[in-house]
Amino acid sequence: MRPIILGFFAAFFFAFTFVLNRSMELSGGSWIWSASLRYIFMVPFLLVLVIGRRNLKPLLQEMKRKPGRWLIWSFVGFGLFYAPISFAAAYGPGWLVASTWQITLLSGALLSPLFFEMKQTGNGQMKVRGKIPFIGLAMSLLILIGVGMMQMEQAGNLTRKELALSILPVIIASFAYPLGNRKMMEVCGNRLDAYQRVLGMTLASLPFWFLLSIYGAATVGPPSGGQLYQSLLVALTSGVIATVLFFKATDLVKGNMQKLAAVEATQSFEVLFAVSGEILLLSAPLPSYLSWVGMLFVVLGMVLHSYVSQKEVPIKLRLPKVKSV
């Protein structure tokens, strides 16, 4: 259950992204700075953590081994994830972005055939191509039904353009984040911990964020003091705390697509935290009865998803371990 608990707390801190990004947009800030400043501000925090653990040199050596993969998959996992998320906040409220983000439950499951996992066979353990976890996928659909309920009433107040621009970018991000994260786990193997991997991906994605910052300075001007402060909060809460917790959780279940999907499903709680945050910080109206029912579906689906993933463990443990001859 430890990976699930870590994922739950990661969801709490990730929710700051949706609330504060929306707050910055409502106060006149640009999504360009909301996206780029988060990762630029993350660097000093992560450097202190990794240097304090005396793990910087192994990270730099690992990045030097395969710089191309680090650049590509960090761009996918961080750049194609957070830039679209920030862009979507300019066209829709935080609850809608957070709700749509839950499509990552399906995205992560559908990506399973692209990766390999360890399976116990008569000849010992061997790598086999991952399969789509259909039972877990059914639980994800239950979560998405709840998300849909929360969207139904509120979405009627948005134009088609607002819906498209707040939903389509998030769908792109929902595939990019698990794809980049899982690919980097393959690249790193067991040689790096979560702190090193987050710092490495942040450093490798900096060229993209610097280019985006230059574009922002040329088109919308410099960020305001308020946006600098809120971006710093997002960097600390969502960028450092949440990402490290989530990466730790995924590291614990690495190689098991069923459990990995369960950890990724914990992010459904971001919807509940985002709704609460908008009510408390942005004076958003209370959710309707239908929205509360939807939240219940989300929580129920998450509990069932976690239960199904844990039920698989005893079955595997009863299999006899046979050494290959």
Question: How many H/I helices?
Answer: 13
Describe the main β-sheet briefly.
2 strands, antiparallel
Question: How many separate domains?
Answer: 1
Report the sheet-strand fraction: under 5%
Average predicted confidence as pLDDT: 83
Kindly provide the radius of gyration, computed on alpha-carbon positions and rounded to a whole number of angstroms: 20 Å
Helix content: over 70%
- Classify the secondary structure makeup into a structural class: mainly alpha
Task: Tell me how many strands there are.
Answer: 2
The end-to-end distance, rounded to whole angstroms, is 35 Å
Q: What is the approximate shape?
A: globular
Quick take:
The protein is mainly alpha-helical.
Task: Provide structural commentary.
By secondary structure, the chain is mainly α. The protein has one domain (2-117, 126-317). It has 13 helices and 2 strands, in the order H-H-H-H-H-H-E-E-H-H-H-H-H-H-H. It has helices spanning 2-26, 31-52, 56-65, 67-89, 94-101, 104-110, 134-155, 160-188, 194-219, 225-252, 257-265, 269-281, 289-317, and strands spanning 116-121, 124-129. Strands 1-2 form a two-stranded antiparallel ribbon. It is globular, with a radius of gyration of 20 Å. The model is unreliable at 313-325 (pLDDT under 50). Keywords: Membrane, Transmembrane, Transmembrane helix. This is Multidrug resistance efflux transporter family protein. It comes from Cytobacillus eiseniae. The chain crosses the membrane at residues 31-50, 70-89, 95-116, 128-151, 163-180, 201-222, 228-248, 260-283, 289-308.
